[in-house]
Write a structure and sequence with these properties.
Blueprint (H helix, E strand, L loop, with lengths): L15 E5 L9 H8 L4 E7 L11 H20 L4 E5 L2 H12 L3 E5 L4 H16 L3 E5 L21 H11 L37 H6 L4 H13 L5 H4 L12 H5 L5 H11 L8 H19 L21 H9 L5 H13 L4 H14 L4 H11 L5 H12 L14 H8 L4 H6 L8 H4 L7 H6 L15 H13 L7
Parallel strand pairs: 1-2, 1-4, 2-3, 4-5
Helix pairs in contact: 3-4, 5-11, 10-11, 11-16, 13-14, 14-16, 15-16
Bound molecules: flavin-adenine dinucleotide.
The site of flavin-adenine dinucleotide (FAD) has 27 residues, from helix 9, helix 11, helix 14 and helix 16.
Length: 489
């Protein structure tokens, strides 16, 4: 498909500016497609503003990913005739400056979801409008516009099941927009050098596991989708909770950075129809959890900071820096928790089941505020997403919309035995326990001394003893919960 009309540099047409954020792709990119269809030469830009008030500055793993994603996009755009202009600084100033430098006649961007970005974008729309430049906002990140989905009474959904029913009822009909084969780039503007942004670590280089695991960029996303459709999708419903098997799509960072559109993933999975011709509902519903998270953030802008259920503000959280550090380092003495936290540190990603187990252990057994876990995930996940991270932490903590009840406390030993029965996951990430038989792997303190010795395990020396007694931690959490004030209606 040829989206760009002839013209461009030297034709006299004023350019269209495409301002990118978490929509770093060419395929099914409505902002890029609309700008290209305008027939104007294109200026494509990405602005990094870490210091905007209220913005969550990108964590280390996100920065690593962003470098790769921008690098890939720069090459993809160049191959089609357009440059990627990089600017770092105050977002509002930089967009106004780009508009002025390019003489843009119109601007296209994705509809912002983050509360801080919504504020800046609203302000820019007015300022640019006063200058006669229209800012067009396109839905580049979601399947469903959060303002369109309402309960029958006209309110916002607070429960996933009716929300997902409403989504299924609307359906995902439109075919993805093909990537342009050629773009008409405007006269290039000055751009920062990506290497100068210092997004990737130098010394110490902690990113070896990230490099082994991921290929940021649209081509990497397409590859990952193809592998998933050809393999794990067929067994997704029964295997997705087993962290020792590659049973989920691992598309989350690609979806987060918009290297692949959720519509493309949805339609490809729906058409793959792997299980006896049935729609892969389990997987499609996970995509709807992503939508639900964004929807909650849209309707509750304080979601990343404050509990949705206000009574949780009175929770007697503990200040436990040593417990927090043990959890972050994967040295709690609870094998499934430690395996998850080490997977996170090494790969920048953790299996969903283990995210739930590690999060529950932090907020319940250790009674550490969910915001501290959220902050660590934010820094270390390559898919760190303001909406999904906050919504899921609140879900686990019991303070969110449609949350797991607080009194339902995961027992990490039973969870480990159920979902990692052969211990493949723990053995991979906690190698010092690898020689233990599966029956004792998830609770090494129950193993006879001779067995520990034969496996080379000395509790308290080669592997920690548990930092909390699981039964007492559970009782303490339940007592704290029972003392909360009654929910306000
Ligand atoms: C405490 C906690 C924090 C989390 N933080 C994040 C985060 O920062 N970013 C993030 O993308 N996901 C987060 N999740 C959700 C989920 O764990 C990941 O999306 C999932 O593990 C990604 O792996 P996958 O791509 O293989 O998922 P798949 O099982 O293949 O699912 C497909 C896609 O659906 C979406 N999805 C799946 N589960 C969820 C969910 N529970 N909530 C929202 N979207 C979902 C993701 O975009 C995912 O890529 C968190 C979960 C928990 C319990």
């Amino acid at each position: 498909m040829e989206l760009a009309k002839p013209g461009g540099e030297g034709t006299g047409a004023t350019p269209a500016l495409v301002w990118l954020w978490q929509d770093l792709r060419l395929t099914d990119q409505p902002a890029l497609a609309a700008a290209a269809a305008s027939g104007r030469p294109l200026v494509v830009a990405f602005v990094l503003d870490d210091s905007a008030p209220g913005a969550w500055a990108l964590g280390g793993a996100s920065r690593w990913w962003l470098h790769g994603s921008l690098d890939a996009l720069r090459r993809d755009l160049a191959a089609r005739g357009a440059a990627l202009i990089l600017r770092r600084g105050n977002l509002r100033h930089e967009i106004l400056r780009l508009a002025a430098e390019s003489g843009a006649g119109e601007i296209h961007c994705g509809e912002p979801l983050e509360p801080w970005l919504r504020g800046i974008t609203d302000g820019l729309a007015s300022e640019l409008g006063a200058l006669g430049v229209v800012l067009h906002r396109h839905n580049t990140r979601l399947l469903f516009d959060p303002t369109m989905l309402r309960t029958q009474a006209g309110g916002a959904f607070g429960v996933f099941t009716p929300f997902s029913r409403a989504c299924h009822a609307i359906g995902v009909a439109d075919a993805p927009i093909a990537a342009p084969t050629r773009l008409c780039g405007a006269k290039p503007l000055a751009s920062d050098d990506l290497a100068d942004w210092g997004l990737r670590p130098e010394q110490p280089d902690w990113a070896g596991g990230l490099r082994e695991t991921w290929q940021p960029g649209e081509a990497g996303a397409t590859l990952r989708l193809g592998e998933f459709l050809a393999g794990a999708l067929a067994v997704y419903d029964r295997a997705r909770d087993i962290p020792g098997h590659a049973s989920t799509s691992m598309l989350s960072p690609h979806l987060h950075w918009g290297e692949i559109s959720p519509r493309r993933v949805w339609l490809a999975a729906a058409r793959a129809a792997p299980v006896g011709g049935k729609s892969p509902l389990g997987f499609l519903n996970e995509l709807l959890w992503r939508e639900f998270s964004a929807y909650l953030l849209w309707h509750h802008p304080h979601l990343p900071e404050r509990p949705l259920r206000t009574e949780f503000a009175a929770m007697p959280w503990r200040n436990d820096p040593a417990g927090l550090v043990a959890w972050q380092r994967g040295e709690t003495g609870i094998p499934i928790v430690d395996a998850g936290m080490r997977q996170l540190w090494r790969c920048g990603w953790m299996h969903n089941r283990v995210r739930m187990i590690t999060a529950s252990f932090l907020v319940k057994h250790l009674l550490i505020p969910w915001q501290q876990g959220e902050a660590w995930f934010w820094d270390t996940l390559v898919d760190a997403d303001l909406a999904a991270n906050a919504a899921n932490w609140q879900w686990v903590a019991g303070s969110g919309a449609d949350a797991a009840p607080y009194f339902r406390i995961f027992n990490p030993v039973l969870q480990g035995r159920k979902f990692d029965p052969d211990g493949a996951y723990v053995r991979r990430f906690v190698p010092e326990l690898a020689q233990l038989p599966a029956a004792f792997l998830h609770a090494p303190w129950e193993a006879p001394l001779a067995m520990l010795k034969a496996a080379g395990v000395a509790l308290g020396a080669t592997y920690p003893t548990p930092i909390v007694d699981l039964a007492s931690g559970r009782a303490r959490a339940l007592a704290a919960f029972r003392n909360l004030p009654r929910p306000t209606a």
